[in-house]
Amino acid sequence: MVKILIAYDTKYGNTEKVAKLIAEGISSTEGNEVIVKNVKEVKLKKEDSYELIVIGSPNHFGRHIGSVKKFINKLPKSQLKLKAYAVFDTCITPDFEKAVKAMERQISETMPNLIKVSPGLSIKVEGIGASKGPIVDEDLPKCKEFGIKLIQEYKSL
Question: I want to staple 148 with a disulfide (CB 3.0 to 4.6 A). Which of 8, 25, 122, 143 is the partner?
């Protein structure tokens, strides 16, 4: 059984929605245990073992938000046992994929032995006050597909 942690933070609920949809995709394949938690709820002092961690953040001016940055910085010193990772963000169009790349860079610097399973996923939000969303309709299916792809790629390592 593959044990996966999806850790995220959210401002308007969009990133949480994406996290849950990714979890649905992973859960649609057999033999996986998926835990979805806000980064503020993950117990870093508890010795848990996850084969895959998926980290998500809203894109805030081309970067991931502070709580996610702090979470990533604390991971190497935590008691969590991790093997591989992937990331995702929610963003408005001009900042597409910028937070994903920033998270990948931070993880590769703080935990160089962690394997990146797949390039990150960037999901667009739209509307008045675009950062509030909603998620662009055509991006919603990408979330479940990303979850399925992640678990397939992880299992093929």
Answer: 25
| CATH code for the domain of 118 | 3.40.50.360
With a cut of 80, say whether residue 20 has pLDDT above it: yes
Contact 69, 56 (CB under 8 A): no
Work out the burial of residue 3: count CB atoms within 10 Å of its CB; fewer than 13 is exposed, 13-18 middle, 19 or more buried.
middle
- Spatial distance between the Cα atoms of 133 and 5, rounded to a whole number of angstroms: 25
d(CA 34, CA 19): 11
As a whole number, mean pLDDT of residues 54-80 equals 94
How many domains, the chain? 1
pTM of the model: 0.95
101 is in which domain, residue-wise? Answer: 2-155
**CA 73 – CA 123 distance, rounded (Å):** 24
